[in-house]
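$ run holo --ligand "tryptophan" --emit tokens
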Amino acid sequence: MFEDKKVLTGVKPTGTPHLGNYLGAIKPAIAMGKNAKEHYMFIADYHAINAEKNPEILSEKLKEIACVYLAGGLDPNKSVFYRQSDIPEIPEITTILYAYTPKGFMNKAHAYKAAVDKNRAAGKPDDDGINMGLYTYPTLMAADILAYDTDIVPVGKDQIQHVEIARDIAGIINAHYNKQLLVLPDYAVDEHVAVVPGIDGRKMSKSYGNVIPLFEDDKAIKKAIFSIKTDSRPMEEPKDPEEILVYQIYKSIATPEQLQEMGDGLRQGKLGYGHIKNMLLDAVINEIKDAREKYNYYMAHFDEVEGMLENGAAKARPVAQATLKRLKDAVFGR
Ligand code: TRP
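-- output --
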């Protein structure tokens, strides 16, 4: 689908990824990258410092997210894999973009608006606890995107607006200089990707405390799966699989044959909740076990990962440098 496109994926190193992140976002991003003409994959650590000020936590989260992507099959020889903070051209480009970014774009950006709404709901002043990093977040994100002449940015729905802002800023600059200085990016939202429900039936999310962990040991995964909400109907009672949460989660991981088998068993009253939880557990472990081994390896040998990230930065920087030069030449009339 994106064979002739340059695709860029950014991920904020916050929170430990869970099974829902892995199936719903991480694996699809890796797959999309494999099909692109070029794929840039970076860890947005400058974005993370707006909210996280503890260096130990920041470095641990960065480590985890880098290892999760590698474990999930990201190929650092195919994808340009780097850390945002290793590219000093990004903040330089951001500074130039500021001069062309209407302040109203930032006022309207939903990450900032959501923070204001939260303050209002709590009876606090609008800008309480809001730093300039959060406020100007979409401009930094625009620099991330525009620096590499990105065609496509795969995003979740919550990030569409940010890509539109990047596109608008690029359009303003191109129009001002009447030149194609910046490539206008598009977003791509994968509608087919499953939203994995959590063990209580709401969307799987760390903030709801309803996650199935990703690369923890079998025991921890089993504990979460056996806590999935069920009811007290007896096994023999025929059930509509669509009403059964275990089945809903199974959908995002099982093969069509496996899904059929669980569905039939439920409809015919031949499978109880214990059975289907074990089926789900087997499928989850089967899905993650090789990746988990790789993950543990990379976590224990992070110097290797560090080398990959440095390599990636060495590939990404010249591209960002060329964009920065184009911008400076135009802006300062050099
Ligand atoms: N804002 C994105 C998020 O919270 C992370 C991000 C930063 C990003 N820069 C980006 C994503 C550039 C795509 C492109 O998930």
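-- notes --
The first helix runs from residue 19 to 35.
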